[in-house]
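Notes from hallway chat w/ T.B., transcribed later so I don't forget. T.B. wanted the structure written out for a chain they're using in a teaching module, and asked if we could keep both sequence and structure tokens in one place. Agreed to drop them here.
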Amino acid sequence: MVNTELVVLDMAGTTVADDGLVIRAFTAAIAAAGVSEEDSRYPGMLDYVVETMGQSKIVVFRALLDGDEKLAQHANTAFQDAYGKLVADGHCEPIPGAEETIQELRAQGVKVALTTGFAASTQNAILDALGWHGLADAVLAPGEGVRGRPFPDLVLAAALRLEITDVRRIAVAGDTPSDVQTGLSAGASIVAGVLTGSAKKPELDAAGATHVLESVRDLPALLS
């Protein structure tokens, strides 16, 4: 096995417990765009949100709202506000063992990047709530010049920022098929799905995961 230089980890569902926060924030966001829970469109939209877990939220809202950019941006801002409030109200916990796993990897000389499909402001709210600023070597979110999942940008941007010598020396772990697709597209040698989030093993296997783990806690043993 190629020595791993970088581990790229998803946040919600992989290192951070979701506990339905995305769905709650989505419900508030889509209501701000004029779609209530009683609306006939709501169940299908909710299904799509579940199917696209891990992807950039602005991209999801564009798809749901037929490309209406103004409405999509409005919904995305409402999502950020709702999710941020849930986090600020204390609804944010790490996946058990995630923090220790990151510390263990870094102690072994492996660099770690935390990535998300959320906006940078939402990512920072989570880092604030958990006291995780400085825990990883890099944190990345979709933004100017960096597309969200399933594109390879987040992984490749982390590799560039942290001066990784070869994409084959990267391991990626996440809880959604989008995480898996991102890792494969970036050329990572290890692309592990974890079962602490939204996807089940058959979905992760179908996406092409090289390994499926019960939790991110199992990653150091895989890399050893």
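Follow-up for T.B.: The first helix runs from residue 21 to 32. Might be a good example for the class.
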